[in-house]
What does this fold into?
Amino acid sequence: METTLNKISTKQVYTFGNKKAEGNTKMKALLGGKGANLAEMNLIGLPVPPGFTITTTMCTTYNKQGKGFTISLLKNDVEAGIKHIEKIMGSVFGDEENPCLVSVRSGARDSMPGMMDTVLNTGLNDKAVLGLAKKTDNPKFAWDSYRRFIQMFGDVVMNTNAQSNQDDNVFEEIIDKHKALKNITLDQEFSVDDLKQIVAEFKAKIKQICKQDFPEDPYTQLWQAIIAVFDSWETPRAQLYRKLNKIPDDWGTAVNIQAMVYGNMGNQSGSGVAFTRNAATGENVFNGEYLINAQGEDVVSGVRTPQQITLKGSLEWAQLAGVSENERLKNYPSLEESMPQVFAALNKLQHHLELHFTDMQDMEFTIQEGKLWLLQTRNGKRTGAAMVKIAMDMLSDNLIDAETAILRVSPNKLDELLHPVFDEVELAKSVLLGKGLPASPGAASGQIVFFAEAAKNYPKSILVRTETSPEDLEGMNIAQGILTARGGMTSHAAVVARGMGKCCVSGVGALKIDYKTKTLKINGETLKDGDWISLDGSTGKIMKGKIVTKDATLTPEFDKLLKLSDAYAKLKVRTNADTPHDAKIARNFGAQGIGLTRTEHMFFEGERIKAMREMILAADETGRRKALDKLLPMQRADFEGIFEAMHDLPVTIRLLDPPLHEFVPHETENQQEMAQEMGISLAEVKAKVNELSEFNPMLGHRGCRLGNTYPEITEMQTRAIIEAALNLKARGIKAVPEIMVPLIGNLAEFVYQENIIRKTADKVFEERKTKIDYLVGTMIEIPRAALTADKIAQCAEFFSFGTNDLTQMTFGYSRDDAGSFLPIYIKKGILKVDPFQVLDQEGVGQLVEMATQKGRATNPKLKVGICGEHGGEPSSIEFCHRTGLNYVSCSPYRVSIARLAAAQAAITNKA
Amino acid sequence: METTLNKISTKQVYTFGNKKAEGNTKMKALLGGKGANLAEMNLIGLPVPPGFTITTTMCTTYNKQGKGFTISLLKNDVEAGIKHIEKIMGSVFGDEENPCLVSVRSGARDSMPGMMDTVLNTGLNDKAVLGLAKKTDNPKFAWDSYRRFIQMFGDVVMNTNAQSNQDDNVFEEIIDKHKALKNITLDQEFSVDDLKQIVAEFKAKIKQICKQDFPEDPYTQLWQAIIAVFDSWETPRAQLYRKLNKIPDDWGTAVNIQAMVYGNMGNQSGSGVAFTRNAATGENVFNGEYLINAQGEDVVSGVRTPQQITLKGSLEWAQLAGVSENERLKNYPSLEESMPQVFAALNKLQHHLELHFTDMQDMEFTIQEGKLWLLQTRNGKRTGAAMVKIAMDMLSDNLIDAETAILRVSPNKLDELLHPVFDEVELAKSVLLGKGLPASPGAASGQIVFFAEAAKNYPKSILVRTETSPEDLEGMNIAQGILTARGGMTSHAAVVARGMGKCCVSGVGALKIDYKTKTLKINGETLKDGDWISLDGSTGKIMKGKIVTKDATLTPEFDKLLKLSDAYAKLKVRTNADTPHDAKIARNFGAQGIGLTRTEHMFFEGERIKAMREMILAADETGRRKALDKLLPMQRADFEGIFEAMHDLPVTIRLLDPPLHEFVPHETENQQEMAQEMGISLAEVKAKVNELSEFNPMLGHRGCRLGNTYPEITEMQTRAIIEAALNLKARGIKAVPEIMVPLIGNLAEFVYQENIIRKTADKVFEERKTKIDYLVGTMIEIPRAALTADKIAQCAEFFSFGTNDLTQMTFGYSRDDAGSFLPIYIKKGILKVDPFQVLDQEGVGQLVEMATQKGRATNPKLKVGICGEHGGEPSSIEFCHRTGLNYVSCSPYRVSIARLAAAQAAITNKA
It folds into this structure.
């Protein structure tokens, strides 16, 4: 009781308006996020509509002491708050001539999206609606607003639908009935009389269900709306949300009551949006659009053609749109021309705001009877190109410092500068077929093929598969883009496509493929081999037909930004590359070495796959060695190419990793072919394929388990690596190999492999009478390896976290099967993000940290990096920086992103 | 240099013999394990052959200072040691008349098995071999011993084979040549002349390869053997072994030189083995076997029929073997009769030894010309029954205390008392077909069937499958035993069979099944449906034909032991049981509750599987609810039965866990049947089966991921549990349900399930107007759950470690696929044991410990148990005790084992 008394003795209502405010931005705990911001906007001189905030402590009081007590406490202050609004607005709450209307909104300390709907237009009743009609000279608008208010109030405040005991929405039912009567389909087709009739029926329905009248008295409306906001704090949905997000129950929510303003009150009114700079290009030009006598939604709805704010913009627009100067002046004058004083005020404001926030601002404004109101200002959304240009321009102009400039660019937006994008006009006209995961960014159009071999049948093809496998590599390389029905962000298709810098949309549940008839079905559409289709790998969207793309163009500002970033970054950025070609691309993007070369990707081409299959089919070690001898020169040549492309920089080569069944064909036709090639029977091939099949291949015979059961494979690969490096040495080129043993789970596994590697290397050194330096280390991708990293570091010279597999095993999620529940988990909030995209710092990250600490405790010089897909994801890179890793490694096209993210991590975490 | 001087100034050779010794059992660091034991045996008065030990520090000296220095240091002491042996044995080293021969053996501080072969018969040369021939009156024995000595010395000491540059063994090559010449196959068929010829050729071969003569001088032999033992410390194999086992390189090995004794020196000589009690039954009767004028290997080889040691034993043996008293006295007299003084000495010795070691002893002895030598005494191996009886008898006789009695019984040996075993005589006569994993103990014979449905075709059948699935449950229950080609110790077949107390051999790589022709092939044999086969689930052996079994019989000592154990155990023992029948069996074995009821096992019978499939096929929630409504009464009835069987004790029920595809048929025939039952097309069934198939089902859509995507399943199961408990309450029976959510990986997943469970329970309580207490907890089986256990314990009321899955994910081993590499890993020493059998304390155990500590830090009252297969494995139980778990849960037939192991853990870990 003492606490309550303490609380109620303090101020409970904080007003704002007319560039004054009783609160400020630091009072978020008391006023909620929204309330504190509204106060602050006044304090910096913005003309925001006046209002007041009821504190969060009153919510707690309400929950403890109930409605009557709370209202009696607040009554005077709330009434004073309304008077405060009326005075500034020059209107009267609920008045028939000059009505003042308000919005009522919740506002907790932290944003809790979707917790409570806003109640707009509070104060409207049978009288005030007439005033609104008169002032706007628009009875239809007034009655439609009234209709909407009753529906919203009935639903949110009076719980009409919840009490109705029926599934259908009672208000929509009435609207639908009237549409049917009038044979119309859209709300705006209703006449004023229709709307009046609907209002009457809404009120009757409320009375019937709630056993009370819809309240005509504006203060009754206001109090009920305030109480409804308080009640929304204790709904089961809100309680669960707080439990999951660890928000204390006693924080409570504030209530914000703010004047409504209208841009549709005649020719001295209007609404618009404005940007301090060009959001598409970043150019430093004030711009925006507005409409006279219109609400904000009219500007963005596209029903009327909006006008430009500046004269310059208006002239440019007219030229592009083919509008004559006469017509422009008559129908589309700029704000600068139509309301020069308002424009001057707005222009002054935008300068002020950009200087205040030192960032490009996106403003919503309304002009009510000649008075400019700012409804909102925020840092403006912008394209990747604009983001880079604005940051670097502001740095040049000394508006911001270098660190701020680096932090201003969202690393993921750099993708837009690195990959082709669709022409926006063409894209807007296209037909959307469906959506999948944005697995690899970029835009591509092509003709559908269903088999990798068919990719070459068309000049531009899109490969469509249920899922891809290493057998499809060549076709994936030829195709413009890849579309798969299954698989997540780290599926084979996704990983390979990102490596190739090729667009890919994966995990499209709605996509059904019939390989026999070479057709696909998606959301009712059927397409066949040869049909055109377009993919946006940055959004996951799939469009019908062909869409023109624009190529990527790297600007000087982009280069400048990345050079600047390198000066700040502590983490080095390496790349995952399996070919000299990829290695060169990555080096051009600034990669400082290779963090992962997957040797198996080399085994799928032509003669190699034959020798590989010969090895798999061999009955014993002798047979395997014979086949490996054929592979040796090919592997050696591959490594020479990669070492040369990455000369002087470290190249981490992972020994054979995937299960052997990935190298044998699974369709009878291909098995027949293999049987012929190998000179054995189809039955023998089938028997071997069957023997190799596993229930859970991800947890099966792969990684170093292969090298430990067939040591001759490790021997061959080591020999190829060392011989390649020595061949380059003979040519005066320095190779820096780091040999990586995959899938280690305990020290003994590593020691066995290390012994084979060192013995083989020594043998080659002796044969060639010369040496090179090399390291032997391991991937940490099995939870047990992380748990016992202190032991493994006794022998391993480096660790590289394979966070794809580590995530799979730490969560127990198969990346290829998670599509059946991961999207649902994210939708329900059980997971905040896909852990295959963003490193799970709480769980997987705990293992990464543990392994790094344990490993370094044993061997302080241990080199530690990450080569999973998370190596190119900004928040994961920040985690790697904090954990003290030496480098991250990512696909070539993400190297720039990682460089920027590494710099941001260093800046954000400065001691 | 100072250290070396310090060391060499101390004593370097320690003699033993004639019941005196310079060392003792505490000097393992200096004398090695074997040397310290030999000294101790003398000190307690045992007549072991005399000898001396060179200390481990000399090995280090040798490695630092080299051969010359070491020999010069040791020369006097070693020669004195040989004199010491000669004096006691009354013979001369290398003498032509009366040769004294010695063995030379390594002996490190810790046993390092397989590091260095022993060199026996050192001192034999062209002269001494004549003396040996004369004394044994057996020239063939003498020359064969000489032949063996040269071969061993050549191989181990002179490295002849390593220097030969050929793959085949040079000595075996010579032997094979002579066998071919004489057209014989066995070594013992060689004549004396053959052996002399071979000896000559061996020596020539050594000279040819090693460029030096085989040394005739006994001291040269001795020194070379000693140096070879020192060298063996630094072989790569030994270095690797030390690295893996963390044995410091500077420990070094000791060298033991001991006199050889011979039981084949005429009729006053002999060899034998003896036991202080009956190793089969545990009866307190001295017994054993011997042979006159024979070596120890002759007694066990079965070439001659051994004689009994005691008169009583001899008379009993004669009666069983149908040997007349005359014949017995003539050919098979007891030692008590043939050498009464030696028998008296031996009998005195055995009394002495049992009192000294307070355990049943197994002794090897040799009588050389009337003198009794004890070669070895150790705690005797015994059957499970004998183990229990001996421990309880010794406790009764106050020879040992209760704690010692409990520790004396190996828990795993209790299996022999709980399951049928084969008649040993019959078993010895049977044909072994192959071997697999001992997946579930017991012995069974039956006629082969290849399909679960066929199990009922024969009165006794053995179900043979590549692997089993839940569809096979009914057939598995009918069959006598189960044999599978794939799968490890925690495969479906193994887990289910152990639950049923039914014999199972799994993971038989050599077994190939052809379901079409209903035949199997194994190691060259082909068997068909209906053929008899026998399985020993305790050893993994598979025999051809029918073998008579003996039933399990529980003795009063067994009961006494377990009651005694319960007084010491801190861990409670629960059981994993899915049916009232299993629950009752387990309760009879002393289970104190159920730790795991797998609800899905109930879904496979008759009508249930239909309703289950209807649910899976349903297009939406409404359809699923309809099918679930049909399952509800069946589940409720199941739970009532289990609660009743386990009344007053806690019953942990796990909600639906396996992926849904386990419930649909995978063969077209059965799919057709399902289509008819469901009234849909085969194509629809196939499409659904295909949709449910996963790449890695172990990491797929299962566990709480089902309950979170289809909450109605959790609702139905909760309702069934709560209604069942309330129904029992109405009948005055107390149910104690603990509802367990499977496969939790983060707190939110648990909260979602918990909310559904509590809401459903509250609803049922309201409907029935009565309540019961229940807990909601979770399995910890995903590494991430262990890592974030502090969070999960905010809501979970108990943890139960599902160590099967936790092992799979921590190691990244699929239990169904690990057969391709786990056996190789164990053979190569990369893994010491199968982690699915024995909990991996270093890795998986780290997670168990972490989760327990983190969980209890959040909720000190958290109940923690284990329900994986490790819950019945003694070393894992000991770990659970140390980690502070509240209970272990295991299959009914392992409850006794777990009770004993829990007591042992408590005793071993007493503060």
